[in-house]
Design a protein that fits this description.
heterotrimer; A alpha/beta (about 240); B alpha/beta (about 675); C mainly alpha (about 300); B: about 675 residues; alpha/beta; Rossmann fold; six-stranded mixed β-sheet; four-stranded antiparallel β-sheet; about 55% helix; C: about 300 residues; mainly alpha; two-stranded antiparallel ribbon; two-stranded antiparallel sheet; about 5% strand; globular
């Protein structure tokens, strides 16, 4: 399996706030990679950097061997990167079907489109049921399904998911993570930003842990599950040089 | 350092530049006063008088748009109101029947009893003098300013513009159609000229010119005084960030209406003058094109800049009156030279509105600040300041009067009970109970989206709570507007920073003190010694607050916030809140984005403030900061309090860990939980 | 005229005016839905559109209402006039966006709106200076065919206006609902950043919105000329106020709302004009102010504001 996406020494700023500091990731084809960390650690910015909404000040983002950090968003989508956005962000006044269609915006209609539609319907039977319903009227969990389906309609090689469990009831969280695993089994690489470390580590192959913009831990999921330092990274304790009196 | 301190706390700047400015103004004044003498062309003097009127209008609109940031597209309505008030009263358009009611007014010289033209009996003729009409119309127009402004208070910028445009159009239409009152489209005739000691102004432009110049000078003076006062600062805060302004104690309703009122008053006065000079008034003089022309003048001159808008108004008015004719002649001659019939027939005078259009577009695209941008004072740093060594701050030698002073009595400073906040279908806070004891530090922690900032917003009145109560030192504050809550002593910072970025550091801290200062409009204009003392004291207090942060902020007080580093901006936000002498300080992620060294420094500064007796309620996700600072910790998750207690207890709590790291039913069952 | 006849006549008038205002309001609302920008210049694009149409018709040798055509020549002339006007107006709209508004896309505050006031002035005064201030007799090749219904007169022109308006509105509806770019426009209006992440090029969507909106304004301009038999530099201001109120009344940013608002305002103007005469303007301005202050979302609601 080849290397699908890499971050090499990426630095990103908002104004003069240094949000990502010398960050390195390596995502191989077929993997599920989780990006973990507490509040305001740079997870969202990583996602935006991959999608092209934010440009890095230094470093490279390499996709399928090509540097993409200067490419516009549309081009990245065309090359096979699709997002599932934080809090879903469906188009609230369009139907479920129209939202799925928008996922395939850059593609032509035809047999491949129909195939993908069928695939989405079989993965998410609820979505098929509700395909003519206005997206804004669906529950949070159902919207998450639609959002994932919308991303799959782009037939992506790399699916970027931003906080898939946010705002979902535990029942839906289970379902969503099961489906993520299924999608991965069907051949899509998954890069997942997630606050819920337990759930994420239960399905990921490898994971990175971010804290205030730096990668402080990384490794296989099984290693990280046993590592007590994760707790401290989340609770903001990793970087204490000396104890405060 | 103390010299620099004294220097910086003077509201009247004593820099050598002041001498140069005084000389410049003296020359300008001499020029203005002697102009009619050495340039004895009546038409030109009249043009200058017109230009001066428009300058006053520009000054008035500048207060509404430039200072307070309220885009008023119907400003000419106030011009009309002032004009027609004077015009109707002095042209005897309205002649009520005489009765005993009018006798005291006759005695005051405001009305005269005249025989009726038709039938018998007598009627009232208003003989209001021009000089009395000026303030009267100003007040009357101000009243309408408040009336027109009131519906716009809660509207967004573009909607506000449209509503004001609507009012601006309704007024001339009403004037045109209410012929019995206003003589309709034909216009008023016989409007009285001003009289001074029995001598009427007549048709010569020169006396009008002097009145106009005095009016401009006076109202520039008023504008500048307001701008540099507590009032002006409040307006600019509203312009920069309304929400933060409210949370810093500024009564948004009062100050927005004040801006409308004062702006309208300027317009009303100009109306009186303009119509007295023309001795007639027609509705066409006050339509949308006039409102736009005044807008063009301030956009061209510099929105927010007093000198800028005056220069802009004079320039554009004289362009129309003087220069375009000559310019047309040259362009025509040039056109004949190059055999271009189109050029030879260009009439620039008629194209003035086209030129206005180009000015608006051009200025917005290329120079939004205008010709003379509103300058924020940036005093040069003194030698001491430039070589200040960055220290971590301290509290030695500081007498922080009026800050904190609360003793840990065990009584609750802040008590929230059962607070529930819902947004549509989402429950952001669910029956939250939080107690902050007097003199303590309480921290609120929790994962993203757990409702921490919503809790702050509920406490400070930014979001309404469906249920529950919030008591501050025994007083119920739930339901009060933000500025009232600040007044009671609750000050906050914002997670995403809501600084007034186009103002200086010092101005931010002065705005923080808004609720504690008392200067109103009249005292601001007169700048009595009491006001000067208050401003001095405010600056000294601000410097003392800045000193908490060592030499990070003090050397930079006259710089614009937009130029400062992120960490410094976080500090300024805290300083601004402290300046309001709060009894409790709400800090929303104060160390976000700071590196460990800066975090350590700030934590110690907060600790020091608490040691002086300031109660602190803190949202923080860096648990080491929480552990050192907090006496009690509350953990929020999905809008509910899931744990509270001492920091070390909370850290070990299973529920808390699960909230942060996430639930995983299967993994928990299998015994593999992080 | 009997009362029913009078009422019916004003109903006919109101629906004709309403058709025109609906087209104008639609164009305005298309841009607002995506950019949340109040585009003052829109109503002077309408005015310029009526002049473009006039010049096109004059090229056919038509002046005033003297030359009458029927059948195929009439249809061809009208078709060419409409297409040319819509294209011309559309291009003007796109130029305005590219040159004056795109540089200000990310500037907060009223800068863009003030710029549209400036552009509006430029268009207005350009026509004033070139075509003069007089009302210009509009070339109208339509035959004077009238139908009588219950005492009210239904002119062939009015029928044409209704047909054109309905056709254009249906076309726009289908375009926005079914076409790829139309869906991209709707998506961008609802969540521009999410749309961008689907690969939508927001700049292109904005250009399309301006083109379509301005084209509709141009069509409305030609309708004005045919209905009133005149045009002048000032029509943008008077019709603009009404169309703007219509858009706000229906729900600014809301496409069916613009159509509904247009019809309502048209009816108010026709029926109310009888009653209120010169005060009609005040009534319409008052409706505008009242809606904005008390129910800013309008009758059919509008998009959730993205700007705070």
């Amino acid at each position: 399996m080849g290397m699908l996406l890499e971050f090499r020494h990426v630095d990103t700023y908002y104004g003069d706030l240094h949000v990502l500091k010398d960050v390195n990731y390596a995502i191989e084809e077929g993997e599920i990679i989780a990006l973990l960390g507490g509040n305001a650690c740079g997870k969202s910015t990583t996602m935006k950097t991959i999608m092209g909404v934010v440009r890095p000040a230094r470093g490279q983002v390499i996709y399928q061997g090509q540097p993409i950090e200067r490419l516009p968003t549309a081009e990245r989508v065309r090359r096979g990167i699709a997002p599932v956005l934080e809090a879903r962000r469906l188009f609230p006044r369009m139907t479920v079907f129209e939202n799925l269609e928008m996922g395939a915006y850059l593609r032509n209609r035809g047999p491949e489109f129909d195939q993908d539609l069928e695939r989405v319907y079989s993965l998410f039977p609820r979505v098929k049921e509700r395909r003519d319903q206005i997206a804004g009227t669906l529950s949070g969990g159902e919207q998450q399904m639609v959002a994932m389906g919308r991303a799959l309609m782009a037939r992506p090689k790399l699916l970027c998911m931003d906080e898939p469990s946010m705002g979902l009831s535990p029942l839906y969280v289970e379902q969503v993570f099961d489906i993520i695993q299924e999608i991965n089994r069907q051949g899509t690489t998954i890069f997942m930003v997630e606050q819920n470390a337990n759930m994420a580590l239960s399905i990921a192959h490898r994971a990175y842990v971010l804290q205030t913009g730096q990668v402080v831990l990384s490794g296989t999921a099984s290693d990280l599950r046993q590592n007590p330092l994760i707790r401290e990274a989340y609770l903001g304790e990793m970087q204490v040089a000396q104890p405060l009196v | 350092m103390s010299n620099a301190l004294t220097l910086l706390t003077r509201p009247v700047s004593w820099m050598p530049e002041a001498r140069r400015r005084q000389l410049g103004m003296a020359i300008l004044a001499a020029f203005a006063v002697t102009f009619p003498i050495w340039h004895n062309n009546d038409a030109d003097i009249d043009s200058m008088a017109n230009a001066a009127s428009y300058a006053v209008l520009a000054l008035g609109l500048n207060i509404v748009v430039g200072f307070a940031g309220l885009l008023d597209l119907g400003y000419a309505a106030f011009f009309a109101i002032g004009a027609y008030t004077y015009g109707i009263l002095t042209s005897f358009q309205v002649e009520p029947a005489w009765s005993q009611f009018w006798v005291p007014f006759q005695w005051l010289g405001l009305v005269a009893q005249m025989p009726a033209e038709t039938g018998s009996g007598s009627v009232v003729h208003f003989t209001l003098s021009f000089w009395l009409a000026l303030p009267f119309s100003a007040a009357f127009a101000a009243f309408w300013g408040v009336l027109f402004g009131a519906p716009t208070l809660r509207l967004r910028g573009d909607y506000l513009a449209i509503v004001t445009l609507g009012f601006g159009e309704i007024v001339p239409i009403v004037v045109r159609n209410w012929s019995s009152l206003t003589a309709g489209a034909a216009g008023l005739n016989g409007v009285a000229a001003p009289q001074l000691f029995g001598w009427s102004f007549g048709v010569d432009a020169t006396p009008y010119y002097y009145v106009a110049i005095c009016l401009v000078a006076l109202l520039m003076f008023v504008s500048i005084r307001l701008r540099d006062s507590r009032i002006g600062r409040a307006w600019m805060a509203i312009r920069e960030d309304e929400i933060a302004a409210g949370c810093m104690g500024i009564n948004l309703t009062r100050f927005k209406l004040l801006a409308f009122a004062i702006g309208a008053a300027f317009g009303g006065m100009t109306g009186v003058f303009y119509v007295a000079k023309l001795q007639t008034a027609t509705p066409d003089m006050f339509g949308f094109p006039v409102s736009v022309m005044i807008l063009v003048m301030i956009v061209f001159g510099g929105i927010g800049s007093v000198w800028g808008v005056v220069v802009g108004a004079f320039f554009l008015q004289l362009l129309q009156s003087w220069w375009l004719e000559d310019l047309t002649g040259w362009v025509d001659a040039f056109g004949r030279l190059v055999h271009s019939p189109w050029l030879a027939h260009v009439d620039l005078v008629r194209s003035i509105e086209l030129i206005f259009g180009f000015i608006l577009v051009g200025m917005m695209l290329f120079r939004r600040d205008g010709l003379i941008p509103a300058v924020r004072k940036q005093a040069a740093l003194s030698f001491d300041q430039q070589h200040a060594v960055v220290q971590r701050g301290g509290f030695a030698d500081l007498k922080l009067q009026g800050l904190g002073g609360d003793v840990r009595t065990g009584a609750a400073a802040l008590e929230a009970k059962g607070v529930t906040v819902r947004f549509g279908g989402l429950t952001a806070l669910d029956a939250v109970d939080i107690t902050v004891p007097n003199g303590s530090v309480v921290a609120v922690i929790g994962p993203n989206g757990s409702g921490k900032s919503t809790l702050f917003n509920a406490i400070t009145g930014l979001v309404p709570a469906e249920a529950g109560s919030i008591r501050f030192h025994g007083e119920e504050i739930l339901g009060l507007p933000p500025h009232e809550i600040l007044r009671k002593g609750v000050a906050r910072t914002f997670q995403n920073l809501r600084l007034f970025t186009n103002l200086t550091v010092m101005e931010n801290a002065l705005i923080g003190q808004h609720a504690r200062l008392t200067t109103g409009v009249f005292r601001a204009i007169l700048r009595l010694p009491g006001t000067l003392r208050e401003e001095d004291a405010a600056r000294i207090w601000a410097m003392e607050i800045f000193a908490i942060f060592g030499n990070r902020l003090a050397p930079r007080v006259m710089q614009m916030v937009s130029g400062l580093s992120y960490a410094n901006r976080r500090r300024i936000e805290i300083a601004r809140a402290l300046a309001s002498r709060p009894r409790i300080l709400l800090l929303d992620e104060p160390t976000a984005g700071m590196n460990p060294a800066e975090t350590l420094e700030l934590a110690e500064q907060i600790k020091g403030l608490n040691a002086l007796g300031l109660t602190v309620l803190l949202i923080e996700h860096k648990l080491d900061v929480v552990t050192t600072l907090a006496d009690t910790v509350y953990v929020l998750d999905h809008g509910e309090v899931i744990a509270h207690g001492r920091p070390d207890e909370v850290r070990r709590d299973e529920e808390v860990l699960r909230a942060y790291l996430g639930r995983n039913a299967q993994a928990a069952a299998a015994g593999v939980t992080v | 005229m009997t009362d029913t006849a009078l009422f019916l006549q004003q109903l006919i008038n109101g629906l004709s005016l309403g058709a025109m205002y609906a087209l104008l309001a639609l164009g305005f609302t298309l841009v607002y839905g995506i950019l949340e920008l109040i585009n003052f210049s829109h109503f002077n694009v309408f005015m310029v559109g009526s002049f473009i149409a006039m010049w096109v018709l004059q090229m056919f040798g038509l002046t005033g209402q003297d030359v009458i055509l029927t059948g195929l020549p009439l249809a061809m002339v009208l078709l060419v006039a409409f297409v040319a006007t819509m294209l011309g107006s559309g291009i003007i709209g796109v130029l305005i966006e590219r040159l004056c508004l795109r540089p200000l896309r990310n500037v907060k505050g009223p800068a863009a709106m003030i710029t549209t006031i400036g552009v509006s002035y430029i268009l207005f005064n350009f026509i004033l200076l070139t075509a003069g201030a007089e009302n210009l007799n509009y070339p109208n090749p339509m035959p004077q065919i009238q139908y009588h219904i219950e005492g009210a007169v239904l002119d062939l022109r009015v029928v044409l206006i209704w047909i054109v308006a309905v056709v254009l509105m249906l076309a726009l509806h289908f375009f926005v609902q079914k076409s790829r770019i139309g869906k991209a426009m709707r998506a961008t209006a609802q969540d521009a950043e999410a749309a961008r992440m689907m690969g939508v090029e927001v700049d292109k969507v904005v250009v399309m919105a301006f083109f379509l909106g301005s084209a509709l304004a141009g069509a409305a301009g030609l309708i004005f000329g045919i209905y009133y038999n005149f045009t002048s530099f000032i029509i943008g201001f008077t019709a603009g106020l009404r169309a703007f109120t219509a858009a706000v009344l229906g729900g600014i940013g809301n496409v069916p709302g613009a159509m509904l608002g247009g019809v309502i305002i048209g009816l108010i103007e026709a029926l109310g004009g009888q009653i209120a005469g010169e005060w009609t303007d005040v009534i319409i301005f008052s409706i505008l102010v009242l809606v904005l202050v008390f129910k800013p979302t309008g009758l059919l609601g509008r998009m959730a504001p993205n700007k705070s």
